[in-house]
Write a structure and sequence with these properties.
The chain has 19 helices and no strands. It is elongated. Helix 2 packs antiparallel against helix 4, helix 5 packs antiparallel against helix 6 and helix 15 crosses helix 16. The termini are far apart. It folds into 2 domains: 218 residues, Up-down Bundle (Rhopdopsin 7-helix transmembrane proteins), CATH 1.20.1070; 136 residues, Arc Repressor Mutant, subunit A (Orthogonal Bundle), CATH 1.10.10. The chain is mostly helical.
Length: 380
Protein backbone atom coordinates (compact mmCIF):
# COMPACT_ATOMS: atom_id res chain seq x y z
CA UNK A 1 0.00 0.00 0.00
CA UNK A 2 2.81 2.38 0.94
CA UNK A 3 4.60 1.54 -2.32
CA UNK A 4 1.48 2.30 -4.38
CA UNK A 5 0.96 5.57 -2.52
CA UNK A 6 4.56 6.56 -3.16
CA UNK A 7 4.19 5.67 -6.84
CA UNK A 8 0.95 7.66 -7.00
CA UNK A 9 2.61 10.75 -5.53
CA UNK A 10 5.68 10.41 -7.77
CA UNK A 11 3.52 10.13 -10.88
CA UNK A 12 1.48 13.18 -9.87
CA UNK A 13 4.62 15.16 -9.12
CA UNK A 14 6.11 14.27 -12.49
CA UNK A 15 2.88 15.10 -14.33
CA UNK A 16 2.59 18.43 -12.51
CA UNK A 17 6.16 19.33 -13.41
CA UNK A 18 5.64 18.42 -17.07
CA UNK A 19 2.40 20.39 -17.25
CA UNK A 20 3.96 23.49 -15.72
CA UNK A 21 6.86 23.28 -18.19
CA UNK A 22 4.34 23.07 -21.07
CA UNK A 23 2.51 26.10 -19.65
CA UNK A 24 5.71 28.16 -19.43
CA UNK A 25 6.84 27.11 -22.93
CA UNK A 26 3.51 28.00 -24.54
CA UNK A 27 3.29 31.40 -22.89
CA UNK A 28 6.96 32.19 -23.57
CA UNK A 29 6.94 31.24 -27.25
CA UNK A 30 3.49 32.55 -28.22
CA UNK A 31 2.63 35.37 -25.77
CA UNK A 32 0.22 37.08 -28.21
CA UNK A 33 -1.61 33.99 -29.46
CA UNK A 34 -4.90 33.50 -27.62
CA UNK A 35 -4.88 29.73 -28.18
CA UNK A 36 -1.38 29.46 -26.71
CA UNK A 37 -2.33 31.50 -23.65
CA UNK A 38 -5.41 29.36 -23.12
CA UNK A 39 -3.30 26.24 -23.62
CA UNK A 40 -0.94 27.53 -20.95
CA UNK A 41 -3.89 28.19 -18.65
CA UNK A 42 -5.26 24.72 -19.31
CA UNK A 43 -1.92 23.11 -18.46
CA UNK A 44 -1.84 25.04 -15.17
CA UNK A 45 -5.45 24.02 -14.45
CA UNK A 46 -4.71 20.34 -15.07
CA UNK A 47 -1.64 20.61 -12.83
CA UNK A 48 -3.94 22.00 -10.12
CA UNK A 49 -6.45 19.19 -10.73
CA UNK A 50 -3.64 16.65 -10.43
CA UNK A 51 -2.77 18.07 -7.01
CA UNK A 52 -6.40 18.46 -5.90
CA UNK A 53 -7.12 14.77 -6.62
CA UNK A 54 -4.04 13.62 -4.75
CA UNK A 55 -4.69 11.21 -1.84
CA UNK A 56 -4.59 13.15 1.41
CA UNK A 57 -5.12 16.51 -0.23
CA UNK A 58 -6.11 18.88 2.58
CA UNK A 59 -9.60 20.30 2.21
CA UNK A 60 -11.13 23.11 4.16
CA UNK A 61 -11.12 26.92 4.25
CA UNK A 62 -7.38 27.11 3.54
CA UNK A 63 -6.36 29.72 0.94
CA UNK A 64 -3.81 27.51 -0.79
CA UNK A 65 -6.22 24.59 -1.05
CA UNK A 66 -9.03 26.87 -2.22
CA UNK A 67 -6.82 28.36 -4.95
CA UNK A 68 -5.82 24.90 -6.21
CA UNK A 69 -9.44 23.74 -6.18
CA UNK A 70 -10.62 26.90 -7.96
CA UNK A 71 -8.08 26.36 -10.75
CA UNK A 72 -8.93 22.65 -10.96
CA UNK A 73 -12.69 23.19 -11.08
CA UNK A 74 -12.53 25.31 -14.21
CA UNK A 75 -9.94 23.16 -15.99
CA UNK A 76 -12.23 21.52 -18.56
CA UNK A 77 -13.99 24.80 -19.29
CA UNK A 78 -10.56 26.28 -20.06
CA UNK A 79 -9.96 23.19 -22.23
CA UNK A 80 -13.13 23.98 -24.17
CA UNK A 81 -11.97 27.58 -24.62
CA UNK A 82 -8.58 26.26 -25.72
CA UNK A 83 -10.12 24.02 -28.39
CA UNK A 84 -12.40 26.86 -29.51
CA UNK A 85 -9.38 29.10 -30.05
CA UNK A 86 -7.48 26.31 -31.81
CA UNK A 87 -10.20 25.74 -34.38
CA UNK A 88 -11.31 29.35 -34.85
CA UNK A 89 -8.64 31.88 -35.84
CA UNK A 90 -11.10 34.71 -35.08
CA UNK A 91 -11.90 33.49 -31.55
CA UNK A 92 -11.93 36.19 -28.89
CA UNK A 93 -12.38 35.92 -25.13
CA UNK A 94 -15.65 37.43 -23.90
CA UNK A 95 -16.80 38.70 -20.51
CA UNK A 96 -19.20 35.78 -20.12
CA UNK A 97 -16.27 33.36 -20.41
CA UNK A 98 -14.79 34.87 -17.26
CA UNK A 99 -18.22 34.69 -15.61
CA UNK A 100 -18.62 30.97 -16.33
CA UNK A 101 -15.10 30.23 -15.08
CA UNK A 102 -15.75 32.22 -11.88
CA UNK A 103 -18.99 30.28 -11.30
CA UNK A 104 -17.21 26.93 -11.71
CA UNK A 105 -14.41 28.06 -9.40
CA UNK A 106 -16.99 29.13 -6.80
CA UNK A 107 -18.72 25.73 -6.99
CA UNK A 108 -15.39 24.01 -6.50
CA UNK A 109 -14.53 26.14 -3.48
CA UNK A 110 -18.00 25.56 -1.96
CA UNK A 111 -17.48 21.83 -2.38
CA UNK A 112 -14.04 22.11 -0.81
CA UNK A 113 -15.35 24.05 2.20
CA UNK A 114 -18.42 21.82 2.49
CA UNK A 115 -16.28 18.71 2.95
CA UNK A 116 -14.94 20.23 6.14
CA UNK A 117 -18.39 21.08 7.51
CA UNK A 118 -20.67 18.41 8.94
CA UNK A 119 -24.02 18.07 7.10
CA UNK A 120 -23.31 20.86 4.60
CA UNK A 121 -26.43 20.82 2.44
CA UNK A 122 -24.77 22.16 -0.70
CA UNK A 123 -21.82 19.74 -0.70
CA UNK A 124 -23.49 16.76 -2.50
CA UNK A 125 -24.92 18.96 -5.26
CA UNK A 126 -21.61 20.76 -5.70
CA UNK A 127 -19.79 17.42 -5.88
CA UNK A 128 -22.20 16.12 -8.52
CA UNK A 129 -21.78 19.28 -10.60
CA UNK A 130 -18.00 19.01 -10.38
CA UNK A 131 -18.20 15.41 -11.57
CA UNK A 132 -20.51 16.03 -14.54
CA UNK A 133 -19.39 19.43 -15.83
CA UNK A 134 -15.92 18.30 -17.00
CA UNK A 135 -17.54 15.54 -19.04
CA UNK A 136 -19.97 18.04 -20.58
CA UNK A 137 -17.15 20.40 -21.60
CA UNK A 138 -15.13 17.45 -22.93
CA UNK A 139 -18.06 16.32 -25.09
CA UNK A 140 -18.50 19.87 -26.39
CA UNK A 141 -14.80 19.98 -27.27
CA UNK A 142 -15.05 16.65 -29.10
CA UNK A 143 -18.10 17.85 -31.04
CA UNK A 144 -16.39 21.10 -31.97
CA UNK A 145 -13.20 19.38 -33.09
CA UNK A 146 -15.17 16.96 -35.29
CA UNK A 147 -17.37 19.72 -36.74
CA UNK A 148 -14.48 22.05 -37.61
CA UNK A 149 -11.81 19.46 -38.40
CA UNK A 150 -12.18 19.72 -42.18
CA UNK A 151 -12.12 23.53 -42.08
CA UNK A 152 -8.46 23.66 -41.05
CA UNK A 153 -6.21 24.07 -44.10
CA UNK A 154 -2.88 23.34 -42.37
CA UNK A 155 -2.52 19.56 -42.58
CA UNK A 156 0.07 19.05 -39.83
CA UNK A 157 -1.74 21.35 -37.42
CA UNK A 158 -5.00 19.61 -38.19
CA UNK A 159 -3.59 16.20 -37.25
CA UNK A 160 -1.86 17.48 -34.13
CA UNK A 161 -4.93 19.36 -32.93
CA UNK A 162 -7.12 16.32 -33.36
CA UNK A 163 -4.71 14.07 -31.45
CA UNK A 164 -4.41 16.41 -28.47
CA UNK A 165 -8.10 17.28 -28.30
CA UNK A 166 -9.28 13.69 -28.72
CA UNK A 167 -6.80 12.25 -26.21
CA UNK A 168 -7.65 14.80 -23.51
CA UNK A 169 -11.41 14.78 -24.01
CA UNK A 170 -11.75 11.01 -24.28
CA UNK A 171 -9.62 10.49 -21.18
CA UNK A 172 -11.93 12.79 -19.20
CA UNK A 173 -15.03 10.88 -20.37
CA UNK A 174 -13.29 7.56 -19.60
CA UNK A 175 -12.89 8.60 -15.97
CA UNK A 176 -16.66 8.88 -15.55
CA UNK A 177 -17.28 5.60 -17.38
CA UNK A 178 -14.80 3.75 -15.15
CA UNK A 179 -16.54 5.16 -12.06
CA UNK A 180 -19.95 4.05 -13.33
CA UNK A 181 -18.86 0.56 -14.43
CA UNK A 182 -16.76 -0.21 -11.35
CA UNK A 183 -19.28 1.10 -8.81
CA UNK A 184 -16.57 3.36 -7.40
CA UNK A 185 -17.02 6.99 -6.55
CA UNK A 186 -15.60 9.48 -9.03
CA UNK A 187 -13.35 10.73 -6.23
CA UNK A 188 -11.91 7.23 -5.77
CA UNK A 189 -11.22 6.96 -9.50
CA UNK A 190 -9.42 10.30 -9.79
CA UNK A 191 -7.38 9.59 -6.64
CA UNK A 192 -6.22 6.19 -7.91
CA UNK A 193 -2.68 5.37 -8.97
CA UNK A 194 -4.01 4.32 -12.38
CA UNK A 195 -5.43 7.79 -12.90
CA UNK A 196 -2.15 9.36 -11.79
CA UNK A 197 -0.36 7.21 -14.37
CA UNK A 198 -2.91 8.25 -17.00
CA UNK A 199 -2.42 11.96 -16.30
CA UNK A 200 1.36 11.57 -16.37
CA UNK A 201 1.16 9.66 -19.65
CA UNK A 202 -1.14 12.25 -21.20
CA UNK A 203 1.13 15.12 -20.10
CA UNK A 204 4.19 13.37 -21.53
CA UNK A 205 2.31 12.62 -24.77
CA UNK A 206 1.39 16.30 -25.25
CA UNK A 207 4.93 17.40 -24.38
CA UNK A 208 6.39 14.87 -26.84
CA UNK A 209 4.07 15.95 -29.66
CA UNK A 210 4.86 19.63 -29.06
CA UNK A 211 8.59 18.94 -29.07
CA UNK A 212 8.33 16.76 -32.16
CA UNK A 213 6.09 19.04 -34.23
CA UNK A 214 7.11 22.36 -32.72
CA UNK A 215 4.60 24.89 -31.40
CA UNK A 216 3.97 26.14 -34.95
CA UNK A 217 2.50 22.73 -35.72
CA UNK A 218 -0.26 23.52 -33.24
CA UNK A 219 -0.74 27.25 -33.73
CA UNK A 220 0.11 27.64 -37.41
CA UNK A 221 3.15 28.69 -39.37
CA UNK A 222 4.16 31.78 -41.27
CA UNK A 223 2.74 30.34 -44.46
CA UNK A 224 -0.65 30.25 -42.88
CA UNK A 225 -0.64 33.87 -41.89
CA UNK A 226 -3.78 35.76 -41.17
CA UNK A 227 -3.51 37.98 -44.24
CA UNK A 228 -4.23 36.41 -47.65
CA UNK A 229 -1.55 36.75 -50.29
CA UNK A 230 -2.25 39.66 -52.64
CA UNK A 231 -0.68 38.12 -55.76
CA UNK A 232 -1.14 34.37 -55.43
CA UNK A 233 0.14 33.40 -58.87
CA UNK A 234 3.36 35.36 -58.37
CA UNK A 235 3.76 33.88 -54.90
CA UNK A 236 3.31 30.35 -56.23
CA UNK A 237 5.83 30.99 -59.00
CA UNK A 238 8.39 32.40 -56.56
CA UNK A 239 8.00 29.30 -54.41
CA UNK A 240 9.43 27.28 -57.31
CA UNK A 241 12.79 29.06 -57.10
CA UNK A 242 15.86 27.23 -55.72
CA UNK A 243 15.80 29.49 -52.66
CA UNK A 244 12.27 28.42 -51.72
CA UNK A 245 11.51 26.18 -48.77
CA UNK A 246 12.06 22.44 -49.20
CA UNK A 247 8.33 21.75 -48.75
CA UNK A 248 6.40 21.01 -51.98
CA UNK A 249 5.58 24.32 -53.67
CA UNK A 250 2.06 25.09 -54.90
CA UNK A 251 1.52 24.65 -58.63
CA UNK A 252 1.14 28.13 -60.19
CA UNK A 253 -1.31 26.81 -62.79
CA UNK A 254 -3.49 25.24 -60.10
CA UNK A 255 -3.41 28.47 -58.11
CA UNK A 256 -4.50 30.39 -61.21
CA UNK A 257 -7.29 27.86 -61.88
CA UNK A 258 -8.52 28.21 -58.30
CA UNK A 259 -8.42 31.99 -58.56
CA UNK A 260 -10.47 31.78 -61.76
CA UNK A 261 -13.10 29.62 -60.06
CA UNK A 262 -13.40 32.17 -57.29
CA UNK A 263 -13.01 35.50 -59.09
CA UNK A 264 -14.59 34.64 -62.46
CA UNK A 265 -17.03 31.78 -61.80
CA UNK A 266 -17.90 33.01 -58.28
CA UNK A 267 -18.27 29.47 -56.92
CA UNK A 268 -18.10 30.87 -53.38
CA UNK A 269 -21.68 32.13 -53.88
CA UNK A 270 -22.96 28.54 -54.03
CA UNK A 271 -24.90 27.48 -50.94
CA UNK A 272 -23.25 24.85 -48.74
CA UNK A 273 -20.00 24.84 -50.73
CA UNK A 274 -17.62 22.41 -49.01
CA UNK A 275 -13.94 21.82 -49.47
CA UNK A 276 -14.83 18.36 -50.81
CA UNK A 277 -17.09 19.85 -53.49
CA UNK A 278 -14.46 22.40 -54.46
CA UNK A 279 -11.79 19.68 -54.60
CA UNK A 280 -14.03 17.67 -56.92
CA UNK A 281 -14.48 20.76 -59.13
CA UNK A 282 -10.69 21.17 -59.24
CA UNK A 283 -10.14 17.41 -59.80
CA UNK A 284 -7.79 17.39 -56.81
CA UNK A 285 -7.62 15.34 -53.59
CA UNK A 286 -8.80 17.32 -50.56
CA UNK A 287 -5.38 17.38 -48.91
CA UNK A 288 -3.82 18.90 -52.05
CA UNK A 289 -6.52 21.56 -52.24
CA UNK A 290 -5.95 22.43 -48.58
CA UNK A 291 -2.24 22.86 -49.26
CA UNK A 292 -3.01 24.92 -52.36
CA UNK A 293 -5.30 27.35 -50.51
CA UNK A 294 -2.93 27.61 -47.54
CA UNK A 295 0.41 27.88 -49.33
CA UNK A 296 -0.82 29.39 -52.59
CA UNK A 297 -3.37 31.91 -51.29
CA UNK A 298 -2.31 32.37 -47.67
CA UNK A 299 -5.44 31.20 -45.84
CA UNK A 300 -5.57 28.92 -42.79
CA UNK A 301 -9.30 28.21 -42.64
CA UNK A 302 -11.66 27.21 -45.46
CA UNK A 303 -14.64 29.25 -44.22
CA UNK A 304 -12.44 32.32 -43.82
CA UNK A 305 -11.15 31.73 -47.36
CA UNK A 306 -14.72 31.75 -48.76
CA UNK A 307 -15.74 34.69 -46.60
CA UNK A 308 -12.92 36.83 -48.04
CA UNK A 309 -14.73 36.78 -51.38
CA UNK A 310 -18.23 36.87 -49.94
CA UNK A 311 -17.53 39.92 -47.79
CA UNK A 312 -15.91 41.73 -50.73
CA UNK A 313 -19.15 41.25 -52.67
CA UNK A 314 -21.22 42.42 -49.72
CA UNK A 315 -19.14 45.56 -49.18
CA UNK A 316 -19.40 46.46 -52.87
CA UNK A 317 -23.15 45.90 -53.01
CA UNK A 318 -23.84 47.76 -49.76
CA UNK A 319 -21.86 50.75 -51.03
CA UNK A 320 -23.73 50.78 -54.36
CA UNK A 321 -26.41 53.53 -54.33
CA UNK A 322 -28.42 51.57 -56.90
CA UNK A 323 -28.84 48.75 -54.35
CA UNK A 324 -29.82 51.01 -51.47
CA UNK A 325 -33.28 49.38 -51.32
CA UNK A 326 -31.99 45.79 -51.53
CA UNK A 327 -32.58 44.02 -48.18
CA UNK A 328 -29.41 43.11 -46.29
CA UNK A 329 -30.65 39.51 -46.05
CA UNK A 330 -30.79 39.33 -49.86
CA UNK A 331 -27.24 40.68 -50.13
CA UNK A 332 -26.03 38.13 -47.57
CA UNK A 333 -27.70 35.21 -49.35
CA UNK A 334 -26.51 36.36 -52.80
CA UNK A 335 -22.94 36.54 -51.48
CA UNK A 336 -23.10 32.93 -50.34
CA UNK A 337 -24.02 33.17 -46.64
CA UNK A 338 -26.75 30.82 -45.50
CA UNK A 339 -28.31 33.09 -42.89
CA UNK A 340 -28.15 36.63 -41.57
CA UNK A 341 -26.53 35.86 -38.20
CA UNK A 342 -23.20 34.47 -39.50
CA UNK A 343 -23.10 37.23 -42.13
CA UNK A 344 -23.55 39.99 -39.54
CA UNK A 345 -20.84 38.50 -37.29
CA UNK A 346 -18.37 38.03 -40.14
CA UNK A 347 -19.07 41.50 -41.56
CA UNK A 348 -18.60 43.24 -38.22
CA UNK A 349 -15.39 41.31 -37.54
CA UNK A 350 -14.10 42.40 -40.95
CA UNK A 351 -15.17 46.07 -40.98
CA UNK A 352 -15.91 46.79 -37.28
CA UNK A 353 -19.32 48.00 -38.45
CA UNK A 354 -22.68 46.37 -38.91
CA UNK A 355 -23.92 46.06 -42.50
CA UNK A 356 -26.51 48.77 -41.79
CA UNK A 357 -23.84 51.15 -40.44
CA UNK A 358 -21.61 50.42 -43.43
CA UNK A 359 -24.42 51.10 -45.87
CA UNK A 360 -25.38 54.32 -44.08
CA UNK A 361 -21.77 55.52 -44.16
CA UNK A 362 -21.50 54.72 -47.86
CA UNK A 363 -24.76 56.51 -48.61
CA UNK A 364 -23.65 59.61 -46.71
CA UNK A 365 -20.34 59.66 -48.59
CA UNK A 366 -22.07 59.34 -51.95
CA UNK A 367 -24.46 62.25 -51.36
CA UNK A 368 -21.97 64.58 -49.66
CA UNK A 369 -20.80 67.42 -51.95
CA UNK A 370 -17.15 67.39 -52.98
CA UNK A 371 -14.79 70.12 -51.71
CA UNK A 372 -14.61 71.48 -55.26
CA UNK A 373 -18.39 71.64 -55.46
CA UNK A 374 -18.56 73.51 -52.18
CA UNK A 375 -15.99 76.04 -53.40
CA UNK A 376 -17.88 76.61 -56.64
CA UNK A 377 -21.18 77.12 -54.77
CA UNK A 378 -19.53 79.67 -52.48
CA UNK A 379 -18.11 81.57 -55.48
CA UNK A 380 -21.48 81.51 -57.18
Amino acid sequence: MATMLTLNLLLRGGATGALLLIAVALWRDHPRVIAARLGSGFAISVAAATLASMPGFTVGPDFGALLVVALASGSMFVFWLFTSALFDDDFRLRAWHAGVWAMLAAVGMLHCVGQGIAHAQWEPAAGLALGLMPVAWALLAIGQSVANWREDLIEGRRRLRSLIVAATALYTVAQLLVALLSALSLRAVVESTANAAGIAGLALFVAWRLLREGHDGLFGSAVGGAEPIEHPAAFAASALSPLADAAPAPDARQVAALEALMAVDHVYREANLTIGALAERMALPEHKLRRLINQGLGHRNFSAFLNTYRLADARRWLADPEQADTPILTIAMDAGFQSLGPFNRAFKADTRMTPTEFRRQGTAASVAPSPRGLAESEIG
